[in-house]
Design goal:
The protein is mainly α and 206 residues long. It is built from nine helices and no strands.
């Protein structure tokens, strides 16, 4: 069950999305530690969705899908704020490898945790993956369920470690001009994701 959860967690975290862009950008600007901490926030949120799916928590599952319009709208607002702030962010002087820019790690962790939670459709991805692996979801809590969730968290964390390590390898290549363009590109991409989410929640509302 741990190995199944490991694969599911990695697969759920890997697709390119706003959190991936945000973590990559934070890694470039502030260093690997900030990127990893941001990724851990998303991994914990993914584990929460995995728990809902694994434990068969019908009430929470129904609530998340019923209120997905408002959750999606909240996620859109958060992404718009982050996107605009990224576009307008000051460009710090690049640091040498191993040096980190002072930042609020708790805020970095919390922001990605909340942002991931505002995408309740993620639970459908977990249900699909669990079904593909033949994992039953019911109200009974067993050791297998906990091992599954540990695997999900480990798999998601493995993805963020891979992403931040890969991005960190190119961090020294960025000067102030390329960093400025990285901010612009990241900001635009995040705003595009916000527009996509807004379109999706609008169709749900209609």
């Amino acid at each position: 069950m741990f190995l199944k959860g490991l694969v599911v967690g990695f697969v759920i975290a890997a697709p390119v999305g706003p959190v991936n862009v945000l973590c990559a950008r934070r890694t470039i600007v502030s260093g690997r530690l900030v990127g990893i901490v941001s990724g851990l926030g998303a991994a914990l949120a993914d584990t929460f969705f995995g728990a809902v799916a694994a434990f068969g928590l019908v009430f929470i599952h129904t609530l998340l899908l019923t209120e997905r319009f408002w959750l999606g709208l909240g996620g859109t607002i958060i992404l718009v704020v982050i996107g605009i702030r990224t576009l307008m962010a000051d460009v710090p002087r690049p640091k040498e490898e191993g040096q980190e820019v002072a930042t609020n790690l708790l805020g970095d962790f919390t922001s990605t945790f909340i942002l991931t939670l505002f995408n309740p459709v993620t639970i459908l991805s977990f249900l699909a993956c669990f079904s593909a692996f033949g994992i039953d979801n019911d109200d009974r809590v067993s050791l297998d369920d906990w091992m599954l969730l540990l695997g999900v968290f480990t798999g998601a964390t493995a993805w963020w470690l891979f992403l931040t390590t890969a991005v960190g390898m190119f961090r020294s290549k960025f000067n102030q001009e390329t960093l400025r363009w990285a901010n612009r590109i990241a900001g635009v991409v995040i705003l595009v994701f916000a527009a996509i989410i807004l379109w999706n929640v609008a169709t749900v509302r209609l």
